Amino acid sequence: MDILLIAAFVAYFILVLGIGAYFYRRSTKMDEYFLAGRSLNPYVVAMSAQASDMSGWLLMGLPGSILAAGVGEIWIGIGLAIGTYFAWLVIAKRLRIYSEKANNSITLSEYISNRFGEQKGIIRLVCGIIILVFFTVYVASAFVAGGKVLGAIFPDFDYTVLMIAGAIIVVIYTFLGGFKAVCWTDFFQGLLMLVAVVIVPLAVMGELGGAEAAWDAVENIAAATSDFNLDLISCGWIAIAGGLAWGLGYMGMPHILVRYMSIRDAKEIKISRRVATTWVVIALACACLIGLLGRAWVESNGMISEAGFDKEMIFIYLVNDLWAVGVPVLAGVLFAALMAAVMSTADSQLLVASSAVSNDIYKRFKGEDYPEEKLVWVSRIVVIVIAIIAAVIALDPKSSIMDLVSFAWAGFGASFGPVVLLSLFWKKVNGKGALAGLIVGFASVILWNVFLGYGSIISGHLLDTPVTGLYELLPAFIISAIVIIVVSLLTGGPSKEVEDTFDAFAAEMKETSAPKSRRYIFGIGLLAVILFFGGILASGLGAEGWTFESTLDQLGLIGGTTSVLYFIGFFVAGFFVAVFSALASKNATSCLARTAGILAAIAGICLMGVGFIDAGYADPHDILVKATGILGLISAVLLLADGIKQKHIFSAGAMFIVLLAMFAQVYGGIIPVSDNGAIIFALMTCVLIQAIRQLALPAVKE
Fold it and tell me: Whole-prediction pTM value?
């Protein structure tokens, strides 16, 4: 291996350890070691949350699964992108405020216990056990990934030795610096990961002869191979539901939720949300491209059939082939980025797991007055113990990173997610309901995985019974939520003190929240219109100019080389239509406008469905197209009536002209667009009119 590659890689580790050493003497108290004293800026919080979220799974597990099966696995990425945004939107600010109201809770376990006024410590004990079980598995997945990365750089060394070496490095700087060191390290690691995940697919495109040639190669493989396809729907609705369900995991990830709690000001959450969402969308999209283009690359090099080929090593194979000899420094940096993905998650998980033992179990045993300095040292010792157990699990180099991560992700999402969500939105949930939900969610994940799901954890050892194939997070999350609600209702609700704390939290949320400005709403609406018409028009651009190759009813994500443009024109635009309409409805001053906004938001969701279900799936596609058209038409008529009633001459006149043109198209047929298509075009034009109208309405105070 080239000395420059090794030098670049080692330099990264020196930087990481230096950060840990810097914060060593600045982390002597519990809130500093586990929560950085709630003092982190929004950019560090955003990057740390996403870097700790996307482990080696981002560059190894996800691309590997897409390489093997095709775009059906992309539903996981879509679910995670949606989940990321909504977790920042609905959970982050509320948890930041409530965790401080709930006796300044510094861990997720402590928050749940304090939120429900639980004094016996049973909730914290159960939380600690859940965290230990699933984080040990999660950390093991990171150690497996780390061992594989180091094995590519130092091929002469045994996997076990390298895996343990990587684990030791993670333990050292987690041991030294605590939460602040981890977050600042994650900030730089997140930037490095983003650079790596963008560079690699672009380089592979060039290696395959350009974007068009690369995609042609992928399509040819899909046409010739039954187990690899480019059809998002053919994977089945169970796989789609399971993939989207990954987004629910964000509601209960302790190492991510604690980031929300650490920001210095709850008002800065919106900055973190924008940064985090942008990062995760780019990272996931590029990781999916690595999987798809990587399949074409390994096929062209004859690697797919070689003995010992590991699909989860695709990132490593690509970096080795493209740069290890020609540009060794770049290869070293990219390998460092992969280790950054591994370490940024492992360190966070070790820290949270150690807090579960020291703060939630050991402190309860020793008493609340136990010295914080000693607790910090207990936590550091626990970091070492958990790392040792995880390393034992990771001894098998054939362990699947994807399987380990999916099991741990489901475990946290189903155990903590419903409890956290209901604790922030429902005043009447109580401690007994929360405890029941924790236990049921924990048990449901394990039982479903073993008996009704994929059996991924014990596959090849004891039992493998893929009865349903449904990812265990979805059913376990639903079951846990139902149990929490039922038990809370049957056991009389929370105490008055708990309800008073909730009221204080709700009051602060109301004081610190402001409606969106009219300009912001206008921008969302304008973006939706541009994406819709831009995507549709661009998809019709042929060699001889613009033509519609099919009616609107036949357009969808699946179909020809214009599929991406169709996706943008329908699915993405539909999402922004829904957001725009919901915001406009919330700020509307009349019942007609509010009703129209709600209907238009539902129409936007239906339009998203049109974006990935083509006419080949006649029944669901036809239902979604008609629903979009009907809801859009009713919404437009209501807005016309509201414009006349409110004497908004411009908007009412423009709406009338659009509706008149729509009916002329339906009955006259001027351009090759179906009746439903004409109605949807009218809906989007009405969205533009309503977006412009937002600028003429009185300003909303930020």
Answer: 0.76
